[in-house]
């Protein structure tokens, strides 16, 4: 599901588990890094995530959801 979402966002390429070798992963990464549009989109998403508080904010949200679930 995460891979599909990243593909939808234009920053990833899906590699099925059965096909995931060092060579296929390297080729996929090289393909992504050679595409200026994907690099630009990755930078945009990175900036947006940082503006929203980045990893610390994401961890706080997960902890809030877990705490709420434990209360019920």
TrEMBL record:
This is Uncharacterized protein. It comes from Actinacidiphila yanglinensis. The lineage of its organism: Bacteria, Bacillati, Actinomycetota, Actinomycetes, Kitasatosporales.
């Amino acid at each position: 599901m995460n891979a599909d979402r990243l593909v939808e966002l234009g920053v990833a390429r899906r590699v099925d588990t059965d096909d995931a070798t060092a060579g296929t992963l390297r080729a996929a990464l090289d393909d992504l890094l050679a595409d200026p549009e994907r690099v630009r989109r990755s930078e945009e998403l990175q900036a947006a995530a940082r503006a929203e508080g980045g990893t610390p904010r994401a961890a706080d949200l997960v902890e809030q959801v877990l705490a709420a679930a434990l209360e019920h």
